[in-house]
Design brief:
InterPro entries: Calycin, Nitrobindin, THAP4-like_heme-bd. Residues 53-205 form the THAP4-like heme-binding domain. It catalyses: peroxynitrite = nitrate. This is THAP4-like heme-binding domain-containing protein. It comes from Eptatretus burgeri (Inshore hagfish). This protein is mainly beta. It has one domain (46-213): Calycin beta-barrel core domain (Lipocalin, Beta Barrel), CATH 2.40.128. It has one helix and 16 strands. It has one helix at 36-44; strands at 9-12, 16-20, 25-29, 48-49, 61-65, 69-71, 79-88, 95-103, 109-119, 125-132, 136-144, 148-158, 167-176, 182-190, 193-207, 212-213. The strands form three sheets. Strands 5, 6, 7, 8, 9, 10, 11, 12, 13, 14 and 15 form an eleven-stranded antiparallel sheet that branches. The protein is globular. The N and C termini lie far apart (41 Å). 29% of the residues are buried.
Length: 221
């Protein structure tokens, strides 16, 4: 299948899907959905970007890892992974985000996280409200400095039957480098480990949402 923008060619059979793009080459299992970000973007491109999130426009779009990300922690075996990152908006004063990670060798689904980035109007403050398939629900707060966001957990909740050791604190940095690549560094502390680096990955943008900033906004959230 050749996409309309001509940037990706995909060959699909019952078991595997091979994708070649200017950003990444790999073979992954058939369930790896590379259309998620583009489908979302297509339906929202016509909406104006709320002025309260205009300074976050650099995040908008569909991103994928160019090289394998690295996962480490004292209590687990180190691993490598691919990841999609989608940042979209629906005209409200916040961004929707989603991260979908897959094992670097097998393509097996790993961590998944969805949520919102909500800035405090007129300030550098920002909050992340997220839910993970590991059973965690996290509220992180921090600051936006240019094209870098630093967040530290304000609260971490989990399901009652979650595995030990439990996550008790998180920290992450999202930043855009001079080459236009997005980087995410995620650290965490657990019930038996102090704050340590856990995940680090770099993404390149495959598509970007078109947005318009409106000065007059009737909707109040």
């Amino acid at each position: 299948m050749l996409r309309k923008n001509g940037t990706e060619k995909m060959h699909v059979d019952m078991k595997t899907r091979s994708m070649t793009s200017g950003c990444l080459e790999r073979s992954v299992s058939w369930w790896f959905n590379l259309d998620v970000g583009n489908n979302i973007n297509s339906s929202l491109n016509s909406l104006p970007l709320h002025p309260d999130v205009a300074h976050l426009e650099w995040l908008l779009g569909h991103w994928e890892s160019k090289t394998l990300g690295q996962g480490t922690y004292p209590t687990i075996k180190s691993f490598h992974y691919h990841e999609q990152a989608n940042f979209t908006h629906c005209g409200q004063p916040l961004l929707d985000y989603a991260f979908y990670a897959f094992h670097g060798d097998t393509g097996r689904p790993l961590h998944r996280e969805v949520g919102f980035l909500r800035p405090r109007a007129g300030t550098d403050q920002i909050a992340l409200i997220g839910a993970q398939n590991t059973g965690l629900s996290i509220v992180e707060e921090g600051e936006v400095r240019g094209k870098e966001i630093t967040l530290t957990s304000h609260s971490v909740s989990r399901i009652t039957f979650g595995k030990e050791p439990r996550v008790v604190k998180t920290k992450r940095i999202l930043s855009l480098d001079q080459d236009g690549k997005l980087r995410q560094c995620f650290s965490m502390a657990t019930s038996n480990q102090e704050m340590r680096p856990h995940l680090e990955i770099t993404y390149c943008r495959l598509s970007q949402m078109l947005s318009r900033v409106t000065e007059k906004w009737d909707m109040v959230l």
